[in-house]
Every structure is written in structure tokens, then in C-alpha cells.
Amino acid sequence: METFIVGESSLSERDVCDIIAKEISRFMREDMPRLISFVMEEMISMIYERLRVLQADLEAGRLMTQKVFFRELDTCGAPCFFEGKDHIINMRCIIDMESTFCVNFYPEEANVRFATCILCDRARESWCEVVQNLELGEVESMTYEYFVTKFKREFVLSIKVQQLTQENLAL
């Protein structure tokens, strides 16, 4: 057993261990609860601050800026639209697109971009012709509702008119 000399008194190894144990016990009994309480208060304060910012962002609509990529749309089985000769099938494409957008919670501004990516072959060529007749600002600020209106006019109504014309000519 070793003896430690501290000032004018000497302590044995056992005495030093007892002193350390008492100090640790005192710290855990007196100081630790204050320290834990302080840390908890700080954490709660940070959480409330973040919640306040989150609520303000939510109310201002700033949380709807999630980034989405076409590969996510493609992975979920997005329909490809090939310009058909039947207006009902073409209308079904719009319904399928809207279902895909709704199920995946895509933000509104991504819907037009994705909808135009779904168009294939002749449908894409037809859509490019439609877009060429629009002004640049009109294309960039196009809403999904406007896209649907243009889509219906190009791929649903015009085909329906053609079918009715052919039916009347056949009579």
C-alpha cells in the first residue's frame, strides 16, 4: 500500500479512493441534476425554436419545395402516352397521370414538367408544336390545369371531332 503526502498530512491509497468516491457521489447527487436540467432546458428551447421556424415555413408554403426527379416518377410506373386514335384512351392518360402525381405527392410545379416527359413519339411532337405557338413566359409559367386544357384540346377534342366527322361522312 502506498502513502500519499498532501500538505502536512499523509493519505493512504485507500483514503484517496474514498475521497474520489465521495466527490463523485457528491457530484452525482448535487451537480449532475443541475447539469441534466440545464441540458434538457437547452434542448427543449432548441426544439421549440425549430418548431416555431417549421410552423412559419409551413404557413408561408416554403416547405413544398421538395426536389423530385423523373426517375422517381418512372420507377413508380408512370404511364407513357403515345398519341392514340381514341379520345377516351387519351383522356384516360390524363387520369393516370393525375393518379400518379397524387399518390406520390409531387409538388404542383413538377406536374407539368413530368407530364410533358410522359409524352412519347407523335404525342411529344404534337406537344412541341403546341408549345411553339406559345410565348416563352407562358410556357415557363404554365400550370397543370392549363397543360390539361391544352392536352385535351390537342389530344382529346380534336380526335373526338375527327371521329365524329368520319362517322357523319360514313352515313
Molecular structure report:
With 171 residues, this protein is mainly alpha-helical. It folds into two domains: 3-60; 70-170, no CATH class. The chain has seven helices and four strands; from the N terminus they run ββααβααβααα. It has helices at 13-60, 70-75, 87-103, 108-118, 121-132, 136-140, 144-170, and strands at 3-6, 9-12, 81-82, 119-120. Strands 1-2 form a two-stranded antiparallel ribbon. It has a two-stranded parallel ribbon with strand order 3-4. β1 (3-6) and β2 form a beta hairpin. α3 (87-103) packs antiparallel against α7 (144-170). The longest helix has 48 residues, at 13-60. The mean pLDDT is 77.
- The side-by-side strand order for the widest beta sheet comes to 1-2
Q: Count the beta strands.
A: 4
Low-confidence stretches: none
- Oligomer designation: single chain
Average pLDDT confidence is 77
H/E element sequence: EEHHEHHEHHH
Strand content: 5-15%
Q: Give the overall form.
A: rod-shaped
Total of helices: 7
Report on the biggest sheet. 2 strands, antiparallel
Radius of gyration: 35 Å
The chain-level structural class is mainly alpha
| Termini Cα gap | 119 Å
Number of domains: 2
What is the share of helical residues?
over 70%
